[in-house]
Design a protein that fits this description.
343 residues; alpha/beta; Rossmann fold; disordered N terminus
């Protein structure tokens, strides 16, 4: 083993592999890799660790759950075939979506070519060709009615902010004004669907929910009614953009991580998502990429702002102060820090 590779720290190893340090920790928690430890207890990734982690990352990129990755590493060809078959199905769905977008682009090009040279092209036509949606609306109270414009919709969009910032009202107004959107509030937890009950009215939906639940459980999620309610909403075939209130509600940390891994793997199979959250396991600032965006609602009720996911972006530190692990979120649920009254 070369000295250079022997001494790779988690951040160095993650950068070399093109994954996050959190992913490396998850691999280790599942027993997929066992990096060496220095005399002071620091992890050190050697050549064998890096080769194995690279294979794991490649299998994950193909849409396999952690359980399927474990089986594939053991040489279980059947598990690998099942995982690849499911990923092929997802890729076919993505290809169909791309074909629709290509047809929109061709249609717009044809329309442009038939116009006068200086005839303007409306921005809404370009958005339609890209398959994106956009909207503009007046912000509700506690704002003062300022106009908010959403110019581009990414595949995953986060809405966050401190308690009392108005993010719930913002999310509802967004769902009302965004074309083909629906708001999924916390009432989904009042009478969550019984995952085990047969869905006689929609056998196809039942199959999709069962397949997704199996993937998530294999990836470390805990089966619960809150997760089943989310899956049922995500898998309903109505092609609506979902704006989801506190997506982490009643989900433990492992379930939140598994859910986000799944949403990223399947991002091109469904319409975009808007996830309202204050959990660092849902919105991990080390994870978002260029196809994700963050909408931050400030505590001073200035208009919501877009925060780039890349390090050093304007507003990123403010977003970080609003996020916490699930155990902290559970301990402080519904609490707002206020100055006590003095006599």
């Amino acid at each position: 083993m070369s000295p250079k590779l022997r001494g790779l720290s988690p951040s160095q190893a993650a950068a070399k592999l093109g994954i996050s340090t959190k992913a490396l920790r998850v691999y280790e928690e599942r027993g997929l890799i066992t990096p060496d430890r220095s005399a002071t207890g620091w992890r050190a990734y050697g050549a064998e660790d890096m080769a194995r982690a690279a294979r794991i990352a490649s299998l994950r990129a193909l849409g396999l759950s952690l359980a399927q990755v474990e089986a594939a590493l053991r040489g279980d060809v059947g598990a690998l075939e099942a995982g690849l078959a499911a990923h092929e199905t997802r890729l076919c769905a993505q290809a169909r979506g791309l074909a629709v977008t290509i047809e929109r682009v061709r249609s717009l090009r044809s329309e442009i070519s038939q116009r006068r040279p200086r005839a303007p092209v409306e921005s809404t036509q370009v958005l339609a060709a890209r398959g994106d949606a956009a909207c503009a609306f007046d912000l509700p109270w506690p704002w003062g009615g300022e106009c908010f414009e959403l110019r581009e919709v990414k595949t995953i969009n986060y809405i966050t902010g401190p308690l009392g910032s108005g993010k719930t009202r913002f999310a509802k107004r967004l769902a009302e004004n965004l074309p083909h959107a629906a708001y999924l509030g916390l009432e989904r937890l009042d009478k969550p669907p019984d995952f085990e009950a047969p869905l006689e009215e929609d056998a196809a939906l039942k199959a999709r929910v069962e397949e997704t639940m199996t993937w998530l459980i294999q990836d470390g999620a805990r089966k619960c009614d809150a997760l089943a309610a989310l899956i049922a909403a995500l898998k309903t075939d109505d092609q609506k953009i979902l704006v989801i209130d506190m997506v982490e509600q009643d989900l433990d940390q492992a379930t939140q991580r598994a859910l986000m891994a799944y949403l990223r793997v399947t991002r091109l199979e469904r319409p975009p998502l808007f996830l309202m959250t204050r959990s660092s396991s849902i919105l991990d600032l080390g994870e978002p990429d260029d196809d994700e965006t963050i909408i931050f609602c400030p505590a001073n009720h200035s208009p919501p702002m877009f925060v780039p996911p890349s390090p050093g972006g304007r507003g990123r530190e403010a977003v970080a102060t609003c996020l916490a692990p699930p155990d902290v979120r559970a301990r402080t649920a519904g609490m707002i820090a206020v100055r006590p009254c003095t006599a």
